[in-house]
Structure formats: C-alpha cells, structure tokens
Fold:
Amino acid sequence: MIHIHVEPGKAALGKAAAELGAQAIRAAIASRNEANIVVATGASQFEMLSELVAKEDIDWSRVTAFHLDEYIGMPDTHPASFRRYLRERFATRVPKLAAMHYIDGDAADLNAELDRLNKLIAARPIDVAFAGIGENAHLAFNDPPADFEAKEPYRVVDLDERCRAQQLGEGWFGSLAEVPMQAISMSVQQIMASSLVVLSVPDRRKAEAVRNTVENPVSPEVPASILRRHAACHLFIDTESAALLRQIPSAVAE
Structure:
C-alpha cells in the first residue's frame, strides 16, 4: 500500500520524508543496534537528504548505506556520477557512517562487481529505502517495461530515451548523446524487500508519473506502481507533483 503525503513545497516535503525515514532508522538501531538503508540520488532527493544528514540524534556509526543505482562506464569524478553525488551530499556529511557501499559503475569486471554488491546486501536486510520516481515512473533505473520478477539484488539495465532525457533536463549532461545507455540498478524485487520505502517526488514534471503510479493498474509499464503491493510505502509529493491526481487519497493499494 502506498500512503500519500501532500506537502506545500519541496522544503516541507524533504523535511517530512526525512523525519519518517529517521524514525525507522532510530527504531532499527534501538531494536538491533544497527540499521541498513538505501540512498537514492537525483534532484528529487536534494531537500530530503539535506534534512536527513542534519539529524543529530541518529547514531550514524551504526548505519550501513547502500547505493541505489549508477551509470555504467562513468568515473566517479564525472559531475553526473551518483557516487560523487552521494559522497558530497550524504557520506561526507555523516562522517561516522558505518559503511557506504557504492556501485562501481566503471569496474573492469562488471560481473564481479555485481557479485560483490549482491553478497553485501544479502547479508543486510534493508530497514529503509529512500527513493524517487522518474518522469517515466521508473523505480531506481528500472525503466518501463520493468522486470518485476528478477531476483538478483543488483542488475545491469538499459535506459530508455525518456529516462535519459530526464537526466539531460536536470542539467547533469551537456547533450543526450553524453547520457549513458546502461546502468547498474537495484532490482524491483530488492526494493520491495525493504521494510519501509520512502519516496520523495516533487515538481510538476513528475505529475504524470505520480498519477500513473497511484491511479493506473499495477503494471511493468508503470514501474513504481508495484509499490502498491508493498506493506509500508510512503509517497511524499508536493502540490505540483500532485496536480494531475483526480483526487488525493490518503493511501492506495492494488
């Protein structure tokens, strides 16, 4: 079930999403003395991450973080690298973090990198997955039609043109030709295995994806719609991204 929270703007959205995620992190540490999280990137996560790293009552030394997705063949020095994004906006701002497991998208042996990541995450059930929804309703880099059945935690995926155009539109690249054609992404099944999913989805350009996720049938053509089958997914939207909803329910399931 997707629980829907409508906030007046990006700042309020980021604050509310970060607080819900922080509550789950604190609870996991209190019960098991550790927490495992997934951290997403992109423009939709700016405000949420800023609020999350400011939480002084989280013992980050007991938190292990996993990277959601990364372009294949891109060095971590590139302005669009998600490793660079996470270092600058998350990891270096919580220096006591127990571990940050990055995806090495330009690894010489991608199969070995996938094996490394899959073994790491298999040992650490995820308490909170922070994520967003793409303009094409993708979940991580699982573009439509998404594979809802793939069992491996991380996998190589192809990026569709609308996804690549979004990356260009957000200012990460100088031209569409520069946007990679493939990425390593966390799978849909692995995201669904998270105890809590916190989605931050601001902006008018995401309104169509939000509507399709909430109002259309669950379908691989709308990857994020699968979260309506999740036990605890919370979608934080603002008035702009909520603009195309016929009505704003408090929750929606399949």
